[in-house]
Design a protein that fits this description.
Strand order of the largest sheet: 2-1-3-7-6-5-4
Helix content: 55-70%
Distance between the termini: 72 Å
CATH architecture of the largest domain: 2-Layer Sandwich
Number of domains: 2
Radius of gyration: 35 Å
Order of helices and strands: EEHEHHEEEEHHHHHHH
CATH superfamily of the largest domain: CorA soluble domain-like
Number of helices: 10
CATH topology of the largest domain: Beta Polymerase, domain 2
Largest sheet: 7 strands, mixed
Shape: rod-shaped
Number of strands: 7
Length: 320
């Protein structure tokens, strides 16, 4: 699926153009072309190499889903690999977005639908001031839109952490550990997705490409600040998740200790009574107490007194 959008010198926009016009459009000074390719085919990769002259290594990286986010400078254009995080049912997934940036064009290639790309296309069509800023601002808008998609996911994780902390403090729920591990897994996916992008944006800030003016570096610095904010928030939530796990394990350990105290107290009381009863259960011939008329009742009373005294003692020790 292709979307070819063209902006001329006057800022007029044309969209859904045929791919056969690419060579002509990018050859005219002042033109700006955005080609978005969803679900690329072999013909698409061949077209990118022929029409734009992209390096075969860059094309090969575009095919792969295992690349780390990076920025490669090919002199005439920049090649960027970024990751886009999205919510996939109850999990958080990530997909790759390949970006080629040249003086008169921006090419995006992705295997899955990315709402950030669609949002920027819609804004580009709606707001004329975006068109006048050139390809540098378009790249900024795209990166910024990608980062904006992280904030709803951070809010979701924040709500999950609040719920986990409340349940840990109230001692409710037996599946807290599962929820903590699920939350930490989501944070790990986001952390692995956003962290490499920091180096990419820093490289954009430092690049000397003429089509990325000094003015655009201010925009990329704003993107960099967003990345730092997101990573710091993820680190904070990760620490909170570890703290909640430690607090929950401590609560379980304390509860187990209380249970062991009760069981130990009961075992001690029963052990004392068993000792007394076992003495008189021995089959010795000469045991004077066996001939007492009320010996049985005296023994039961003595055992009751022993049980009460021990129970009172353990109660004072707060074991019962």
């Amino acid at each position: 699926m292709h979307k070819l959008i063209h902006i001329d010198k006057q800022g007029n926009l044309r969209k859904d153009l045929p791919l056969s016009e690419i060579s002509e459009l990018i050859g005219i000074e002042g033109n700006l072309v955005w080609l978005d390719i969803l679900h690329p085919t072999e013909d698409d990769y061949l077209m990118l190499q022929e029409e734009f002259g992209f390096h075969p290594l860059a094309i090969e990286d575009t095919r792969s889903e295992e690349q780390r986010p990076k920025l490669d400078d090919y002199k005439d254009y920049l090649f960027i690999i970024s990751k886009y995080a999205f919510r996939n049912e109850d999990e958080i997934g990530a997909t790759f977005l390949s970006i080629f940036v040249g003086p008169r064009y921006l090419v995006t290639v992705h295997q899955k639908r990315i709402s950030a790309v669609e949002n920027v296309i819609a804004r580009w069509e709606r707001y004329g001031e975006m068109r006048a800023e050139g390809v540098a601002y378009l790249l900024y808008a795209l990166l910024d839109s990608i980062l904006q998609g992280y904030f709803p996911l951070l809010d979701e994780i924040d709500d999950m952490m609040d719920d986990i902390e409340d349940r840990v403090l109230s001692g409710q729920g037996h599946d807290i550990m599962d929820d903590i591990f699920k939350t930490k897994k989501k944070m790990l996916v986001l952390r692995r997705t956003i962290s490499p992008l920091r180096d990419v944006v820093m490289s954009l800030i430092r690049t000397e490409e003429s089509f990325l003016s000094s003015k655009s570096r201010i925009y990329f610095s704003d993107v960099y600040d967003h990345i730092i904010h997101i990573t710091d928030t993820l680190d904070l939530h990760r620490d909170l998740a570890s703290g909640a796990m430690d607090a929950y394990l401590s609560t379980i350990s304390n509860r187990l200790n209380d249970i062991m105290k009760v069981l130990t107290s009961m075992a001690t009381i029963l052990g004392a009574l068993t000792l007394i009863s076992s003495v008189y259960g021995m089959n010795f011939r000469y045991m004077p107490e066996l001939r007492w008329h009320y010996g049985y009742f005296y023994l039961l009373g003595f055992m009751a007194v022993v049980a009460v005294v021990l129970a009172y003692y353990f109660r004072r020790k707060e074991w019962l």
